[in-house]
Amino acid sequence: MNPDQLTQGITNAITAGGEQMLENTLAVMLPVLWLAVIALHLARPYMLHMIPRFTLRLAADIWWILYVALRDLVIVLTFMFSIMFLFPDVTVADPLPITGGLAAVCLFAVLVIKLVRDVDEDRRMFVLTSNLLGFGALLYLIPTVLGLQATGTASSGFWGRVANGLTTSTNPTVAVALAWFSAAAVTALGIYAVVYSTKQTTTTRVRPDIAA
Amino acid sequence: MLAAITQDQLTNSIVQAMVQGEQQWLVSTIAAFLPALWTLSLILHFSRPYMVRMIRKLTLRFAADVWWLSFVLVRDAVMIITFALSFLFFLPNFAHNIPLPITGPIAGVFMFWALLVKLTGDVDDSARDYRLSSAFLVAGAALWLVPQLLAIETVSQPYMAGVVNALTSTSHQDITTAILLGSVVLMALTGAYIFNFVISGAPQDAPKPARAAAPALADAEAAAVSAR
Fold first, then answer.
1. Which of B21, B43, B147, B184 could be bridged to B101 by S-S, CB 3.0 to 4.6 A?
2. What is the pLDDT of residues B72-101, one digit of tens each?
3. Which chain B residues are Cβ-neighbours of A93 within 8 angstroms?
4. Which of B2, B6, B60 is best to mutate for the A interface (most A CBs within 10 A)?
5. Chain A, chain B: beta-carbon pairs less than 8 Å apart
6. Interface ipTM
7. If you ran DSSP here, which 8-state letter would residue A117 be given?
8. Considering only CA atoms, which of B34, B123, B44, B42 is closest in space to residue B81?
9. A207 lies in a domain?
10. What is the number of structural domains in chain A?
């Protein structure tokens, strides 16, 4: 080995190691974000219960704005961090929950439903988004607990096979297929959202007038 | 053999590897993070109907204004950050040495044009300008996200080798250079147009900060004040 080869070897190690470290850190953070998504979504009755206690309308409005902004921002952030599940190379190289891409699709579907329907007023849509969020959380958390974080304690036997089956790097064929499917689903939902939002601007004034 | 390397050579190798490796890692990380920023730009831009619907629920004009200005601020800030990070891929050495989406610089130009429409038009009040800005944004996102997904992050799939080769910057140095230089020229022309637009619209006198408008008084209240 000459100095150039040594330099190249260490360079590749830093680049690949840094990338995998970053992706694994995101994967570890995502369960926390999923729990925050669920907690904020289900906190709606508590938030509504608080509103009548305010003596000022301004305080009530600010309380509701902060809640809605935080709730939706956490959903958007969680989806942003889940984009890596749509990339085949990432799913093959890193040990990740195998259904993480499908969980991202659920999150994006919730965002699109919030765009086209009034989830805070329409009970049917609220139930639908709640189910999608719950289903998405299960799709992320179950493979994380039984797959990604169980390879040490269940390295053989039935639970070992379950752990390997639920981890992307040990089940790459299914992982890549799910990544392609998730990318296609997100693309289709995205096109629908773009068309909907653009159509809205043809008939209505873009900037809103003052609040009612 | 590793034993044949002297201590100085080993030190130099590690130093160079750290510098090059960390630079490559940083650029690759930004490249990998840009799809998230592009997606966030799209989400915020096209979430306008949702934001408008929320405003109608607020009971106070102050709350509605806070909601709207927060939305506009975050939406535009994310677009500017995405554009600023895209500028990194206008540097030829990075495009030649690090596998990046081959159409990345054009995506940056489209983002610049979306910002240009916001500056020269009224995207929040004109449906035509909104649609034009949306078209630039979608085109830019497609030019970044498609090669990122189908080429940069699909190297492990042998059946995608042709697509990977076609859409990766390091595979076609000449095409990459042509795209990059063409994009730099478009950026420069757009920048010159913006400069001219701003200069030609500048006031003749030195600008003075406007005083905050006094709150309007009701007729009866105004009469009472003048009577005093």
1. B147
2. 989 999 999 999 888 878 888 787 888 888
3. 156
4. B60
5. 171
6. 0.74
7. S
8. B34
9. no
10. 1
- Angle subtended at Cα A33 by Cα A27 and Cα A35, rounded to the nearest 5 degrees: 115
Asked if the structure places residue A178 within a domain, the reply is yes
Answer yes or no: pTM beyond 0.80: no
Residue ranges covered by each domain of chain B: 10-50+58-198
Q: Which amino acid is at B71?
A: F
Distance CA B210, CA B208 (A): 6
Has residue A211 been placed in a domain?
no
* CB of A207 less than 8 A from some CB of B: yes
Give me the residue from A62, A89, A206 closest to B155, CB to CB: A89
The DSSP secondary structure of A20-54, one letter per residue, reads: HHHHHHHHHHHHHHHHHHHHHHHTHHHHHHHGGG-
Q: Which residues contact B109 (CB under 8 A, 6 or more apart)?
A: B140, B183, B186, B187, B190
B16 touches chain A (CB under 8 A): yes
**Interchain contact A173–B (C-beta under 8 A):** no
Provide the residue range defining the domain that includes A56: 3-201
Tally Cβ neighbours within 10 Å of residue A184.
12
The DSSP call for residue A145 is: I
3-state secondary structure of B6: coil
Instruction: Note whether residue A188 is domain-resident.
Output: yes
Q: Point out the residue among A83, A92, A206 whose CB comes nearest to the CB of B126.
A: A206
Q: Is A83 within 8 Å of B36 when comparing Cβ atoms? A: yes
Choose among A10, A19, A183: nearest Cβ to B28.
A19
